[in-house]
Design brief:
single chain; 322 residues; alpha/beta; 12 helices; 33% helix; 25% strand; globular
Length: 322
């Protein structure tokens, strides 16, 4: 089969190589899955760089989530077992962790309704306890993780303010349903949030960026607000000022979705049912900006690494890009 392999750490377009390899062999409790679509996530770029919290042995295949088909014909969502990730024609995955692919979504959309939307759901509902009528501030609102949070925030009845970088991403965020879009390159984020909320600030901040995004968020957080720390796409890990959190009476909440797979797998299945229902109703629908053929995967991962992509880019190992 064909698979993208990383033999040394570095930038994705420099270290990912498309190779012919043997199909992986399932172990106890695992199943071989044909990959129909592999969604690209920012952690795939971090894996290539050797900067992710998990460092699989070299060589490895990146790709942390897929939509695939099992030997008995089931269409499923899976998180492949590294070092044999999803940018391949076949993967192995734990049978117990397979989730049924939503019928309302095609393969590419289904692949993107997994980690990003699960992260958004757990972040907004389990960690921040977002309520209808509250104001939600989403950083990188036109990106893969942010776009999911925007849709889930709207589904929860929140007023959603999206922060983006550039006019094209602003258009995408508006189309997603943001009530207000702030272009961080042209607008004052803190002033815009305070103006939109009558000085109150945002009740919940969803931050997959870190760095300056976090610093500005805590300057416009509401009384009893909650900042959900999802990731550090900026490459800068902020250092929270706990005295500031005390004085302004807000909470900083960390979210590592992967822990739920081991600590509370039933919660993951329950969340998937919620997301499947929302997809069936048309309330959420992953924003797929590109569907690329297998040979375009490395360049696509690089675009995600560089922050130039909008929504999700999905690799179709056996199908035609469109």
């Amino acid at each position: 089969m064909q698979a993208w392999r990383v033999h040394r750490n570095g930038e994705p377009n420099e270290v990912m190589r498309l190779e012919e390899t043997d199909r992986p062999t399932p172990g106890d409790g695992q199943v071989l899955v044909e990959v129909l679509a592999a969604n690209i996530n920012f952690p795939d770029a971090l894996l290539c760089r050797g900067q992710y919290q998990i460092r699989p042995p070299l060589p490895f295949t990146p790709g942390v989530e897929i939509c695939g088909r099992t030997p008995d014909g089931r269409r499923v969502l899976a998180t492949p077992a590294l070092p044999d990730g999803g940018f391949a024609q076949y993967v192995v995955a734990d049978e117990a962790a397979l989730l049924p692919a939503p019928e309302a979504l095609d393969d590419a959309e289904a692949a993107a309704l997994h980690i990003g939307y699960q992260t958004g759901w757990f972040g907004l509902h389990r960690r921040a306890r977002l309520q209808a009528g509250e104001t939600l501030l989403v950083h990188a609102a036109a990106g893969g993780v942010g776009s999911a949070a925007v849709q889930l925030g709207k589904a929860a009845g929140a007023t959603v303010i999206g922060v983006v970088g550039g006019a094209e991403k602003a258009k995408a965020a508006t189309a997603l349903g943001c009530d207000l879009v702030i272009d961080r390159r042209a607008d004052d984020i803190v002033a815009a949030v305070k103006d939109a909320t009558g000085g109150r600030g945002a009740d919940v901040v969803y931050d997959p960026v870190g760095g300056d995004a976090y610093a500005k968020s805590v300057k416009c957080i509401a009384f009893e607000g909650r900042v959900v720390v999802v990731g550090f796409a900026s490459g800068v890990i902020p250092t929270p000022g706990l005295n500031h959190a005390l004085v302004k009476n807000y909470s900083v909440l960390g979210l590592h979705w992967g822990l739920y797979n081991t600590k509370d797998p039933q919660a993951v299945r329950d969340c998937h049912r919620e997301l499947t229902g929302l997809a069936a109703e048309g309330v959420v629908k992953p924003l797929i900006s590109e569907r690329v053929a297998m040979d375009g995967a490395a360049a696509a991962v690089q675009r995600v690494a560089d922050g130039t992509s909008t929504g999700r880019i999905v690799v179709l190992p056996s199908g035609a890009a469109r």
